[in-house]
Design goal:
120 residues, single chain, mainly alpha
């Protein structure tokens, strides 16, 4: 059951993040802001971010802070590359995705499906 809920949580997170990345890219007036690019950015950022969080957060001391900072930088670079835009516009796109992540985590936690999201 844990595996099914974790996979459902991850899938929901990617879909919602892609929608918010897409909306963020459109609002930031990023050229070529397609939903396909939003999905690609969400999948890449989600997988790479999860791996970085898992690896870096085991470091003693400031591991969690370091994991967040490195994951943020890598995610911004992924969004910048996928959308072929500036770092400033990539940050705006990420900000919408981050807001979506907070909303999804709150909803999933309320539904009892938030186990995986505590890691992401």
């Amino acid at each position: 059951m844990f595996t099914a809920s974790a996979l459902i949580s991850l899938l929901i997170m990617i879909i919602v993040s892609a929608v918010f990345y897409w909306l963020g890219a459109r609002m930031a007036k990023v050229p070529g802001a397609t939903f396909g690019r939003a999905v690609a950015a969400a999948v890449l950022a989600g997988v790479v971010g999860l791996i970085l969080q898992l690896v870096l957060s085991i470091m003693p001391g400031a591991g969690n802070i370091l994991a967040f900072i490195v994951t943020l930088i890598v995610t911004l670079l992924i969004i910048k590359a996928v959308y072929k835009t500036t770092l400033g516009k990539a940050f705006l796109v990420w900000l919408f995705g981050f807001i979506a992540a907070m909303i999804v985590m709150a909803v999933l936690a309320a539904l009892g499906l938030g186990t995986l999201m505590a890691v992401a």
